[in-house]
Amino acid sequence: MISGAAGNYFELFDIPVSYTVDLNELRQLHRELQKTVHPDRFANAGAQEKRISMQQTSLINQAYHTLCHPIERAIYLLGLRGVDFSMDNQATMDAGFLMQQMELREALSKAGDKADPLAEFDRLEKEINGSMKKLQDRFQQVFENDDLDSAKELVRKMQFLYKAGQEVAELAAAVEDEMM
Amino acid sequence: MALLQIAEPGHTTAPHEHRLAVGIDLGTTNSLVATVQSGEARTLPDESGEHLLPSVVRYHETGVEVGRAAAEHVVDDPLNTIVSVKRFMGRGISDLSLFGDKLPYTFVDPDQSAPRIHTRGGDVSATEVSAQILKTLRDRALHSLGGELTGAVITVPAYFDEAQRQATKDAARLADLNVLRLLNEPTAAAVAYGLDTGGEGLIAVYDLGGGTFDISILHLHKGVFEVLATGGDSALGGDDFDHAIAAWMLAEAGLDENPDPALVRLLMRTARETKEKLTTQHEVRVELDVDGEHWSAQLTRAHMNALIEPYVRRTLIACRRALRDAGVDKDGIIEVVMVGGSTRTPYVREQVGAFFEREPLVSIDPDRVVAIGAALQADILAGNKPGDEMLLLDVIPLSLGIETMGGLSEKLIHRNTPIPVSRAQEFTTYRDGQTAMAVHVVQGERELVSDCRSLAHFELRGFPPQVAGAARIRVTFQVDADGLLTVSARELNSGVEASVDVKPSYGLSDGEIESMLRDSMVHAEDDMKSRSLREQQVEAERVLEALDAALAADGDVLLSGQERDDIVAARNRLEAAKSVDNPVQIRTVIRMLEQTCEEFIARRMNTSIRNAMKGHSVKEYVHETNSNEELGD
C-alpha cells in the first residue's frame, strides 16, 4: 500500500498547515519531490519499483494539486478539522453576494454584443479574480479563528465565483473559435 | 563489502555499459528514428541514405511494403496502401465519418471495437499498420547500431487522448519495442534545442506540418518541463498553402474551375515546387503545360505571402487561444521553437516572430527536431547519463470522468492535472445480492457523456453479495506517466479485490493483442514462448540490478540483519532461476522476491522523499523565492 512519507499533504511538503500557501515555494518543493520519485527515474527498474514510484508520485501530485487550488485547499483544510464538505448541500448566501452575482451574469450575457467582446471578457475575468482574492483573504481570517461555519459559507461563495469564471473562459473561447 | 557477497562473478552489467535506446517520431506523413552516439543525437538513414520514412504501408497477399516503395502506389493501389494512419489511431468507426467521403479504404467493424481496414493481405487495425512502421524503424536502428535495443521513446501529439496513446503503445508492443516513455512532440522539440539546460520561463512550440497545426505552451524550470496548454487545428497545414497557390494558377491561366485529377496533381506538384523555391528566392517563374498549351507567369514572394496569409493568420489566433488557456501573457515567452516542414516558409517565420515578438529557433531541421529530442530523452531514460537532472513532467490533456445517472460525466481527474495521478471513488450496489457492476469511463471537457469520448467499459465482478447499498466498492483510477489508465477495485467491507474486465471503446483488448502477437509469429509457437522467456529474463535482470544497487546504497541503514538475509536469500533464488528456460517459473520467483522487498522499496522511497525536503535548506529556499519574484513568476 501507499504509505505516505507524512500524514497530511502539508506535512508531505513540510510546510505549515495554513490556508496561506506560498505557491512559488510549493511548486519548487513539488519539483524537488518529483525529481526523486518520478517513474522516469525508474525507467530501467523492475515492475515493482515502477509501480511504487508511480503510486508515490500520484500521491505527491494529488497533494500538490489540492494545495495549489484555492477551493480544494480550503475544503481539504476544513476536512482536517473534521468538516465533511461533500455532505453539505445548503446554500445560504447573503443578499449582497447574490446581487453581485446577478450583476455579473447580466454583464456576461451582454458581453457578446459589445464592440470588443474579448476586452469585456478580460474585464470580467479581472473582476472575478479580484472578488475571489477577497474571499480567500477572508477565509484565511475566519479559519484562523476557527469559525468553521463562516469558512464553509466562504467556500460556497468561492465555488460560485469559480463557476462564473469558467463560464467567462468558455464564452471567450467560443468567440475566439468564431474568429478562427 | 556487502555488495561483493551478492554480486555474481563476471556480472555482465558494468556501470558504464552504453545501452542502445532510440527516439521515434511516429508522424502522420513521415516517421523517423534517432539515437545518441558519442554524445550527439542524430537521425538514422536507411540503406539508401534517406532519413524520412514515409508513413505509408502497402499490403500484399503475403507481406507488406513500408515507406517510399509503398508510397509510390498510393494512386494505383489505394485500397491496399494505407496513408496517414495516425489519424485513425484509437478511433472508432463513428469518428471516421469526420474525414468525410475522402477515405478510399473499406472499413470492417465486426465487433464494434477497433475498426479494421480491409486489404488483400487481410483486415488490419490502425495499431497493426503503425506497428509495421515502427518495426521498419526498429529494424533500421538494429541494422545500423547492432546489439540489443533497451527501449524507445515514442512521440505523440500533446493533445492525444488516452485511447490514442494506448493504441500507440500497443503498436510498439506489436513491433517488439520496449517503450521507455511516450513523450509529447512539443516537449521533444524543446529538448532537442537543449532548452532543458536553460533557465526558467515559457516556451512556445509552433508545429506546422503538411496537414496539421499544433501550438503548445510549455513551462520550463530547472530541467522540468510542464505542458501548460495545447491547441491547434487538425485540418490546417502546408497543404493549404499549396492549394492556395494552385488556385491562383488555375485562375491566372484561365483553366477550368473543376480540373480533372491528373491536372490537380500537376497543379499541386507545381505549387509545392513554387512554394519551396520561394523559400530562398524572391521571385520565380511558374510554368504549366496543359493540353499542349504553355502558360507561365511570375510569382513574387510578397504575392505568395498574400495568398497564404489567411492560413497563417488562423494559426496565430490558435496561438492566442493557447496562451489564454495557459493563463499566461505572450511577453512571458522566452523561446519559440519551430517544428514541421511548413515552418521553412519565410512568411511563417516572420509572422510567428512578430506575434511572439522574438526570433524563433530554426537551426535544427524542423522535420527531424522531434525525433532528435526523443532520442536525447531515450538516452537519459536508458540510464546512459547518470546524474542528469532533466525531468519531463506531463499533465493529462483531457479530463477523465465516469458516467453517472442521466448520462452525465462526473469528472474524476481534471485536465492539466500533473500525471501520474490516481483517484479513488466509492460506489455501492443498488440491488440485494449484487456481485458485479459496470463503470463507463469517458474523456473530455463536456458535461454530457455523449459529447465526450468513450474510453472503456469496466466490469467489476466477484465482490461478495450483500443487501443493496451495503457494499462499499472503492474503485481506483490510475493514470501513469504516459497518460494511460488502469482501474482496480476493492470491496471495503470484505477486502475482496474485484476483478476488472476492460472493454476499450475504440482499440484492442489485451486478448486481441495477444492473438495478434501470436499471429505475427507465423510459424512457430516456439517464437512466442522464446519471446516471453526473454521478457522474463530481461525483467529478472532489471530487478536484480536495481536491487543490488539499492542494497549497496541503503541496505545497511534501512534493513535489520534478518530482513537483509531474507532479501538476499530471495535474490539468490532469482539469480538461480533466471537461467532456467521456463518463463512462468521465473515470473513466480520474481513475484516472491517482490513480496520480500516491498517494504524495503517503500522505505527507500519514503526516505528519499524526506531527504529531498530536508535537503531543501532555508538558504536555498530564500534564494529561490527571491529569484521567482524578480522574474515576476
Tell me what the structure shows.
The complex is a heterodimer of chains A (180) and B (633). Chain A has 7 helices and no strands. Chain A has 180 residues and is an all-alpha fold. In chain B, a hairpin with a 4-residue loop joins strand 28 and strand 29. The N terminus and C terminus of chain B are likely disordered. Chains A and B meet through helix 2, helix 3 and helix 7 of A and helix 9, strand 19, strand 23, strand 24 and helix 13 of B.
How many E-type strands of chain A? 0
Mean pLDDT of chain A, to the nearest integer, reads 85
Strand order of the largest sheet of chain B: 22-21-25-26-29-28-27-24
Helix percent band of chain B: 25-40%
Task: Give the helix/strand class of chain B.
Answer: alpha+beta
Short description:
The complex is a heterodimer of chains A (180) and B (633). By secondary structure, chain A is mainly alpha-helical. Chain A has 7 helices and no strands.
Question: Topology, pairings included?
Answer:
The complex is a heterodimer of chains A (180) and B (633).
Chain A: H1 9-12, H2 23-37, H3 47-68, H4 70-80, H5 95-111, H6 117-144, H7 148-179
Chain B: H1 2-6, E1 20-26, E2 30-37, E3 40-43, E4 53-54, E5 56-59, E6 64-66, H2 68-71, E7 81-83, H3 93-96, E8 106-108, E9 116-119, E10 122-125, H4 126-145, E11 149-156, H5 162-174, E12 179-184, H6 185-192, E13 200-208, E14 213-221, E15 224-233, H7 238-252, H8 261-277, E16 283-290, E17 293-300, H9 301-326, E18 333-339, H10 346-356, H11 369-381, E19 391-392, E20 394-395, E21 400-404, E22 408-413, E23 418-419, E24 421-427, E25 436-443, E26 453-461, E27 473-479, E28 485-491, E29 496-504, H12 510-520, H13 525-558, H14 561-577, H15 583-614, H16 618-630
Parallel strand pairs in B: 1-11, 11-12, 13-18, 15-19
Antiparallel strand pairs in B: 1-2, 2-3, 2-4, 5-6, 5-7, 8-9, 9-10, 13-14, 14-15, 16-17, 20-23, 21-22, 21-25, 24-27, 25-26, 26-29, 27-28, 28-29
